[in-house]
Design goal:
The protein has helices spanning 31-42, 87-98, 114-119, 141-148, 192-204, 226-229; strands spanning 3-4, 12-14, 17-18, 54-55, 71-74, 104-109, 128-133, 154-159, 176-180, 208-213. The protein is of the alpha/beta class and 251 residues long.
């Protein structure tokens, strides 16, 4: 089943694939890998392979059974554009997305170079929000250029975990920026000035800004549980969504 999500910026998760492989520093302490091993130990369906990339065609039609308009984060437990996911399987995923216009689908990838290649031969559906992970300058920032090449209704950046000051970033063609610090007992700290730099640039570019969490390290540089650190920055929460957001068709 698609599941209710605790992720602040979505409603439910849908995982037609599970498992992944590490490609950049943001993957080092992957929460999905830890969760997959835990689910495997519990005997949860779909995790017999633990965190090895696995296709789940039996899950493809899950969103079709839900009439209520819902925002789905696609593949919280994997990367839809992993090289082990064939174009044909991707086609099947997007056929389901197009067949359920009442829903919005947020798709996030670190395999950004595959985006313009895949969408050169098929249009990005109107109910898709397409995003890339941007954790640092070397691996993350170059993904933005690949994303910009796709004619997606909403393009967004997930700057989580933010591992360093990104410096100047080109936000042209980007509609939404999510920022968050790393969580977990091995979390790497995020510094306040790194966050402030992104917020300043997002506001200057009129890009919606969403601050997800401080993570395992607070604004004061003290390590504590992420719930205790919260998500307050400059005295408030930042929960903006893109102004051009697609309103899902409830029909």
């Amino acid at each position: 089943m698609a599941t209710q999500s605790g992720i602040e910026w979505t409603e439910q998760t849908w995982n037609p694939t599970t498992g992944c492989t590490k490609v950049s520093p943001g993957c080092k302490h992957c929460y999905a890998e830890v969760m997959a091993r835990r689910l495997h130990a519990m005997g949860a369906p779909g995790y017999a392979n633990q965190f090895r990339l696995t296709l789940h065609p039996e899950r493809l039609e899950q969103p079709l059974s839900r009439r209520k308009p819902t925002t789905y984060f696609v593949n919280s437990m994997s990367d839809l554009f992993h090289k082990a996911v064939s174009d044909r399987f991707l086609d099947r995923v997007f056929e389901v997305i197009e067949a359920s216009p009442q829903h919005c689908y947020q798709i996030l990838t670190k395999r950004a170079e595959r985006l313009p290649e895949y969408f050169a031969r098929r249009a990005c559906p109107a109910n898709v929000w397409l995003g890339v992970s941007v954790e640092d300058r070397k691996f993350g920032v170059p993904r933005i250029d690949h994303l910009r090449k796709v004619d997606a209704p909403i393009r967004f950046l997930s700057v989580e975990p933010l591992l360093e000051d990104l410096g100047p970033i080109d936000l042209s063609g980007i509609h939404w920026v999510i920022v968050g610090g790393e969580s977990g007992h091995k979390a790497r700290p995020m510094h306040e000035e790194w966050l402030a730099n992104i917020l300043t640039q997002a506001e200057a570019a009129n890009v919606a800004f969403f601050f997800k969490q401080w993570g395992g390290w607070g604004a004061d540089g003290v390590k504590r549980p992420k719930k205790a650190n919260g998500r307050i920055f400059h005295g408030r929460t930042w929960d903006a969504y893109p102004k051009a957001a697609v309103i899902c068709d409830p029909s």
